[in-house]
Design brief:
This protein is an alpha+beta fold. It is built from two helices and six strands; from the N terminus they run αββαββββ.
Length: 119
């Protein structure tokens, strides 16, 4: 049982080394890289200086108000041509037009973009 697992593991390692050796180019001649991938891209082990795969996909940043979400929320509130004019760690400011007048919406830089001020 263990002999079969050991043979399968060494075979997989040889295939992985052969695949990485076959895919190198002149641009990456100075890098030493080694990787094994299981299943879908983004899951596996990677060793090298330039990870092309192996890093998990970016996740939703919990606790932050994304700019696109703030603009969409302002548009749903009736602000025409909404655009972000200021963004810092505490708030996101969106300006636009509503009923022919300039308007400004201030969102907290927190999850779900809560409204602080709307004028």
């Amino acid at each position: 049982m263990f002999a079969r697992i050991a043979k399968a593991t060494t075979l997989a390692a040889l295939i992985a080394v052969g695949a990485t050796a076959a895919t190198t180019s002149q641009a990456s001649a100075g890098n030493i890289e080694f990787g094994i991938q299981f299943g879908t891209p983004g899951y596996g082990y990677y060793y090298g200086s330039n990870p092309r795969w192996g890093a998990p996909p970016p996740r939703y940043r919990k606790g932050k108000c994304k700019p696109r979400r703030a603009v969409n929320k302002a548009w749903r509130m009736g602000v025409n041509n909404p655009r972000i004019v200021r963004r810092n760690q505490k708030r996101v400011v969106v300006k636009g037009w509503r009923h022919g007048y300039k308007t400004k919406v201030v969102f907290a830089n927190a999850r779900h973009c809560p409204v602080i001020r709307f004028r």
